[in-house]
Structures are given as C-alpha cells and as structure tokens.
Write a structure and sequence with these properties.
With 314 residues, this protein is mainly α. The protein has 13 helices and no strands.
C-alpha cells in the first residue's frame, strides 16, 4: 500500500478515466457521427494511457523524494519516502517509471511519425524533475507548471488520434468539422483541468505553508499571505462556475443533453460553492484539507461529464 500511496494511485485513476472517457465517450462518437473510422488502434491508445500514467507516477515519486523535509513538518504521519520506502528504492522507482514512460512515448512518436512527440515525452519527466527540485519553490511558477501539465493530458488523446487519421486520410482530415469539434471539446476539458488543478495547487500551498517556509519556498501564501490566497481560490472557483454556465447557454447542443443542467448544478456548481465557503471559513492551514478534498471531487465530476458531452454525437 505504501507504494500505491507513493505514486498517488487515486490521481492516476482520474487520469485513466479522463483519457478513456475522452476517447470512447467523446472523440470516437464525434468521428462516427461524421462517418470517420478511428485510426488509432486500441493497443496504441492503451500504450498512450500507460505512458501518461507512468510519467505522472514518476513525477509523484520524485516530488515525495525531494519533499521529505517539508512533509516531516506538514504531515509527519503521511511520510512515505525514508519511512516506509527506502530513499534509494524511491529514486530507482522514479528512474524506472520515467524511462519506461519515455520509451513507450518514443514508440508512439515513431508510429505516428510525429517528431514533436519525441520532444514532448522527453520534456515531461524533465520538467517534473525541475518542478520537484526548483520550480515549486517559486511564486506561482510551480502551480502553473502542474496545471499546464495536467491540461496536456486530454490533448494527448485527440492529438494522437488525428495524427493516426492524418496518415490514413492526409492533411484534409485536419480541416474537417470532426477535427474542429474534437479539438474544441478537448480544449474545454483541458481548460477545466487547468483551472481546477491551479486552484488545488494554491489550496495545497496554503496547507503546506509551515513546511514551505522552513525550506525557503516563495509560494503565493508565503509571499502574499493566506487571506489573499484564499481570495484567489474563491475568485477561481466562482469564475469557473460562471464559465461553466456561459458554456452551457452558448455552446450549441449542450442544452439538448438530458439532465445536463441538473448534473452541472448538483455536481459542479454546488461543489464549487462549497469549495468557496469552506476556503473562506478555514481558520488554520490544516482546515484546508476539506477544500482540497472537494476540489478533487470537482475534478472527478468534471471528468465524468465527458460521457454526457458526447451524447449529441451518438
């Protein structure tokens, strides 16, 4: 169980759900709606999911490896590296996960003939290492880095599918309505992932303020204060609710999806309002655990909405 907690298996499950639902609940229905047969094989798609999970897991391991000092202050009861898992073993695990993930990524780059994927799959573990050692200690840079990396996850699915389709149909597939719709919806969910993760990263910084101060970090709560950081979380939460409803009313087809409005009220709007309330009412950094949990649930509910978003294309 220590190793599962070390790789943050719950977060990895959400990544798998996101990519699987995006492909089978949205992108494939869009393609079939326009009589286009998907070109990416199931095996290669599962390899994409695997490499994404491996690289994310490697990032979680190396983050815990370098966070040992702060974790001993912030959450001593949950320390894994150096307590339940030997530090050398953790470092070896990170290397194995990273190299396996990169190797699979390079294979996917080869079969799709996309040189940019080579850079991408090498860049991700590199930036995760830089985040764990340096970037997270700087004002907002670490938060934005993780949020951007999370936003890349859905883009990998649509990008690889249309790279495979381009090899079959040529460049004209890129200019098709199906391609535009797939990228449009993927961008929506990527933006949701970005904002939600940015919000959670700031919440985590409030939780970890004592340990971060001890190691010389310059996070938002340390530089601007907890009240200001809570205000930023609240603004991001309310802004997200407004954005969700603007999309609902102005994006064609969403209002025709059965129970979409009810879902957005119960599973997105109310949790965001609860997130705002619990954040504002938190008196101590440790009280931010509940907002953090609510934020995770919002991520999950947002991912599950993908299945509903593809309804009009079935």
């Amino acid at each position: 169980m220590a190793y599962l907690n070390l790789i943050r298996y719950k977060n990895l499950i959400i990544i798998v759900l996101l990519q699987v639902l995006l492909r089978y609940g949205l992108i494939i229905p869009i393609l079939e709606h326009y009589d286009i047969t998907p070109a990416l094989s199931t095996v290669n798609f599962m390899l994409l999911v695997l490499t994404t999970v491996l690289l994310a897991a490697s990032g979680n391991v190396i983050n815990d490896y370098f966070d040992l000092r702060t974790d001993r202050i912030n959450r001593p009861e949950n320390v894994i590296v150096g307590k339940k898992v030997n530090r050398r073993v953790a470092l070896l695990l990170h290397v194995l996960l990273s190299f396996t993930g990169v190797f699979i990524g390079l294979y996917l780059a080869y079969i799709t003939r996309r040189e940019t994927y080579v850079f991408l799959f090498v860049f991700i573990p590199t930036i995760l290492w830089a985040y764990s050692t340096t970037l997270k200690k700087h004002f907002l840079i670490g938060n934005l880095t993780i949020a951007l990396l999370t936003a890349i996850v859905p883009y990998l699915v649509v990008s690889l599918e249309f790279a495979a389709l381009e090899r079959v149909h040529g460049r004209e597939i890129v200019n098709s309505t199906a391609c535009s719709l797939a990228w449009f919806w993927t961008t929506g969910f990527a933006f949701f992932a970005f904002i939600t993760n940015l919000t959670r990263e700031i919440i985590k910084d409030i939780q970890d303020i004592n340990g971060d101060k001890a190691v010389g970090c310059k996070t938002l709560p340390i530089e601007m204060g907890i009240p200001y950081s809570k205000a930023v979380v609240s603004i991001l939460s309310i802004g997200s609710v407004i954005a969700v409803w603007l999309i609902y009313f102005f994006v064609k087809g969403l209002k025709e999806i059965p129970y979409a409005a009810i879902y957005l009220i119960v599973f997105i709007t109310i949790p965001y309002l609860l997130l705002t309330y619990t954040t504002i009412s938190a008196k101590e950094p440790k009280d931010m655990k509940l907002p953090s949990t609510i934020c995770k649930l919002i991520m999950l509910f947002g991912v599950l909405f993908i299945a509903m978003a593809g309804y009009n294309f079935r």
